[in-house]
Amino acid sequence: MNDIAPAWTPTPQQIEAARITQFTRWLAQSRGLQFDDYDALWRWSVDDVDGFWCAFWDWADIRAKHARGVALADASMPGAQWFPGVELNYVDQVFRHADASRPAIVARSESGATPGIIREVSWAELRQQVAACAATLRRLGVRRGDRVAAYLPNTADTVVAFLATASVGAIWSVCSPDMGPLAVLDRFRQIEPKVLIAVDGYRYGGKAHDRRDLIAQLLRDLPSVDHLVLVPQLDIDARATDFPNAIAWQDAITAEAPPGGGALEIEAVPFDHPLWIVYSSGTTGLPKAIVHSHGGVVLEHVKIMALHLDLHAGDRFLWYASTSWIMWNCQLGGLLVGATLCLYDGNPGYPQADSLWRFVGEAGVTFFGAGSAYFQGCLKADVAPRAAADLSRLRAVGATGSPLPPECYTWILERVGPVWIDAISGGTDFAGCFLGGLPTLPVRLGEMQCRCLGARVEAFDEAGRPLIDEVGELVCTVPMPSMPLYFWRDTDNRRYRESYFDTYPGIWRHGDWLRITPHGGAIIYGRSDATINRHGIRMGTSELYRAVESLPEVLDSLVVDLEYLGRASSMPLFVVLRPGVQLDEALTAAIRTRVREALSARHVPDEVHQVAAVPRTLSGKKMEIPIKRLLLGQPLDKVANPDTMANPESLAWFADFARVREEQREAQGGAA
């Protein structure tokens, strides 16, 4: 394929100021290592895994109770052993950057006591609240290894609750309050939390959503919860006394607080001690409850923030995210390198389409990231960020969650300004990035700039051979420290292995289509498996089926997420109905409502179609991936073998549907 000319090129001043430049010079001075270009640096980082991570540890000055030894004691994948004998805590790495000259957090919310008003939290205030909240958790009986579950939005209070939980060695897990009870219970039941911290409700797009009835349901259905901490967000007068064994958030962050923001007790834990549990669903069973470690997250996130996002102490960092998206966890990494964390809780397009951009300007954001879908929405709505806000401090824009189309690169450069575009791709599964940016490399439309340091990423063909300039399966062939410790309750690691290592034993298969370009860039073309990826939040198809098929009219269903670079993303749902029932507007609305209430608004299907049967294999599995490939334009004889099907006659309807869909797409100029 023809090489694409750069759309943005760093200046000599930008290259000189970049932290990756500082790192390479440090390697030359302290290790005697010289690299001609980034590709040579990357290859060293994945060929000498132990040498790279030890060097990065020293350069970043990672704080630990004991001196580090070797980085990688066991390179098995899964099962790698990192930094044995080291003890540390995520929270130590945060508060080492406390600086009275700048705020720790700058936040705006649609809800709360002062909706719409920018709130600043100083480092001293953050430390005091974390110390008090940690003392409260200890008083409630929370100890190392206990789980603290949160049903909270993207606010400063949530950051306080997380840091307090981590400081005592407990394990954090959060769901966004826009998630319905089925999705929340499927997650929290698995981990049996001891304490639940929950918001009474929230506003989004000016609409109030009271969550107190749902909290009562969670308390009934989570018998492990001993105490509730109620955070008033929708109704500032919401009473904790309305719930059993509950205390108010204000009491939690003031009671027993050390006077004057005194000493915060931070418990040192082993490198591989669990930090949080996040969720990423497959196509069967409950959501995967993925456990990440203190040490692995600290290392990966400091690497991403410092080198691949080029965050400096004093930067103002905003990545618009929901607490149910791994980018909420990742954005906290800004605190690990001394940046001020900027939070926006609410609809980014309310009350105006450019409301989030206005916050970017008013908060003085220097690095702004969001899901690719947000930028596509701005483009379609003809938002003019520079006309709406003073973006003079903004030097970088990041994107992830789905592939960022070339036209969005152009829109950012034209409507936002000549900023560095740092598109990244990673995953909930390992809380990190495989592909990303670098401020010293050129930006090409539609491409991520590089493979990240320490991430040996390749595009594999079906035989496991690496490809260049061809689309293949995204794999990672060496371990990374933030890869999961394990899945909660997956005692024999069976589900862990099935999720990532079945296709290529000993090699991580991520489930994305990838092309590595000849100059070292990368393009993601969408999911190669059946997992739903909506605005960056991955949801298993099994969860949607449970919701849809709970309706008495629906006998069976099949959903596919049609995400492929260059085509409009859509998610059609196909339903088999009871005899005599026809799909009409009322039933379609009921299906959409059921998904919205049980899961979230993000996972409502774009289309609903009635079919006679769902294609299934001889073993009864729904044929999600073959139907997805068919609807993405592959020929029927290449995606399904009728001899291996229980109901091959069901394919005819889908083949006709795919043909009509492709004809419509071509008639519209290939855009649909």
Major β-sheet profile = 7 strands, mixed
Q: Measured on Cα atoms, how large is the radius of gyration?
A: 24 Å
| Overall domain count | 3
Strand order of the largest sheet: 5-4-17-16-18-19-20
What structural category arises from helix and sheet content? alpha/beta
Tell me roughly what share of residues is in helical segments. 25-40%
Strand content: 15-25%
CATH topology of the largest domain: Rossmann fold
Number of strands: 34
Q: Which class of the largest domain in CATH terms?
A: Alpha Beta
Overall shape: it is globular
Low-confidence stretches: none
Span between termini: 24 Å
CATH architecture call of the largest domain: 3-Layer(aba) Sandwich
**Fourth-level CATH superfamily of the largest domain:** ANL, N-terminal domain
Q: Round the mean pLDDT to the nearest integer and report it.
A: 92
Number of helices: 23
What does this structure look like?
- The protein is an alpha/beta fold and 672 residues long.
- The protein folds into three domains: 12-96 and 273-527, Rossmann fold (3-Layer(aba) Sandwich), CATH 3.40.50; 119-267, Rossmann fold; 540-667, 2-Layer Sandwich (GMP Synthetase, Chain A, domain 3), CATH 3.30.300.
- 32% of the residues lie in helices and 22% in strands.
- It contains 23 helices and 34 strands.
- The chain has a seven-stranded mixed sheet with strand order 5-4-17-16-18-19-20. A five-stranded parallel sheet has the order 7-6-8-11-12, with helices on both faces. It has a five-stranded antiparallel sheet with strand order 25-24-26-28-29, with no helix packed on it.
- The relative contact order is 0.10.
